[in-house]
Amino acid sequence: DALGLENKAMATLSRGARGLLGGPRRAGARTRGNRAAASRRQGVGLLVQRRGCNAPGALVCRAAGPGDKEDKNSVEKVYNPQTPAGEMLSYYLSEQPHLFQDAVNEQLRLLETEKEEAKEKKKEKGDKEKTDPSELVLYQRMEEVRDLEMTRNLEDLMYFAVVERFTSLGVSMLSPLNDIVDIDGNSDLENLTKGVHSVESLEMVRSHLMQVLSGPAGSPPPNLNSVLKISKLQAAQVYAASVMFGYFLRRVDARFQLEKAMGLLNEVNSDAVERLESIFGQASSAESWDEDAESFVQARAEESAAASDNLPREKPKSKLQEYIETFDQQTLQETAQILSKEGSTLVERQTRGLFGDINELQEEIKNALGGDGPDVLSSPEDLLLRLQEVIASGEVKSLTLTVAAQRRVVLEAVAFGAFLRDIENYVAKETVGLLTGNTFP
Question: What is the pTM of this model?
Answer without folding.
Answer: 0.75
